[in-house]
Design a protein that fits this description.
single chain, two-stranded parallel sheet, 10 helices, 65% helix
Length: 294
């Protein structure tokens, strides 16, 4: 900028004031290092400008050759590119990339996308503010967002399908019409709660856990509750005349240990032999009075 007219002392003080302004600007940028770690590269320049701002006016004339080239180099290769980065859309792209990786850090191991392998090193590059790096990041962020959206929707649908299937099985039970209204409402509430958890979950591990817990814990509990309730009787029926509550014991079909000599099935005869072994194992449980949950 044009130098003010006047005495050398006035000019020197003006230069010192400009260094003070630059020092404050660099301090403000450094305060954003948590969100933009690459800004740490400005620390040395901030120290230099802060020191120059404290110099006496004659220093800017007597010793200008000692620091002018260094300051020009810092301005052209460091400060100007960072200023341009921070004042435009590149800073927004950088922030969006970091936010996406942070918010979905627990989903990234499940997503089928090569974008993560490009986004992470680009954001960690100490000179990411130079060139067209952020334009590539913008494209990769869009790809990763779509991959994550597809992943989460697929996991949610798989969980919903499982609950639909199990809930559909429960609704075919012959005991269903005989259940008391309060019992039906309680059962429906637990199923609805599971659906709600699936819809609101955005982490793959959480969705899978909700699905697993329904299949392994909640569904067996509901099955037991629906098949061990006493049937509804007339209000004036004497309590001693009520039918006894049947308490069946359920075993999980998945948990049955089927004795079979091979770790795999290779042909039709293997399939037939395995089915025979499975049938024998199931009949063994049924002979004990157990019901097999499928």
């Amino acid at each position: 900028e044009p130098a003010p007219s006047g005495e050398v002392a006035t000019l020197g003080k003006h230069v010192a004031g400009r260094f003070e302004q630059l020092s404050s600007e660099l301090k403000e940028l450094l305060a954003k290092r948590t969100e933009f770690p690459f800004l740490a590269v400005l620390q040395e320049s901030a120290d230099v400008t802060h020191k120059l701002a404290k110099q006496k006016y004659n220093h800017f004339f007597d010793g200008v050759r000692d620091f002018s080239d260094d300051l020009l180099d810092r301005k052209e290769n460091l400060l100007d590119p960072i200023r341009q980065f921070m004042s435009g859309s590149m800073a927004e792209i950088y922030t969006e990339g970091r936010r996406l990786l942070h918010e979905h850090r627990d989903n990234l191991d499940y997503v089928q996308s090569t974008a993560v392998a490009r986004i992470r090193p680009a954001l960690e590059d100490a000179r990411c503010y130079v060139g067209n790096t952020m334009q590539s990041v913008k494209s990769d962020v869009a790809d990763l967002k779509q991959s994550l959206k597809t992943l989460i929707e697929t996991e949610q649908q798989a969980a919903v399908d499982l609950v639909d299937s199990k809930w559909g099985q429960l609704q075919t039970l012959p005991e269903l019409p005989q259940l008391e209204e309060g019992t039906l409402q309680s059962i429906q509430a637990r199923v609805d709660e599971t659906y709600q958890k699936i819809r609101h979950a955005s982490l793959v591990a959480v969705i899978r856990d909700v699905k697993r817990r329904f299949e392994e814990d909640i569904y067996p509990q509901l099955l037991h509750q629906m098949t061990t309730q006493p049937t509804t009787t007339e209000a004036d029926t004497d309590e001693d005349d009520r039918p006894p509550v049947v308490q069946p014991t359920y075993v999980s079909g998945k948990a049955l240990n089927v004795a079979f000599e091979r770790p795999y099935l290779a042909d039709a005869s293997d399939v037939a032999a395995y089915l025979d072994a499975m049938k024998a194992r199931m009949l063994e449980e049924i002979a004990k009075g157990h019901r097999i949950q499928i």
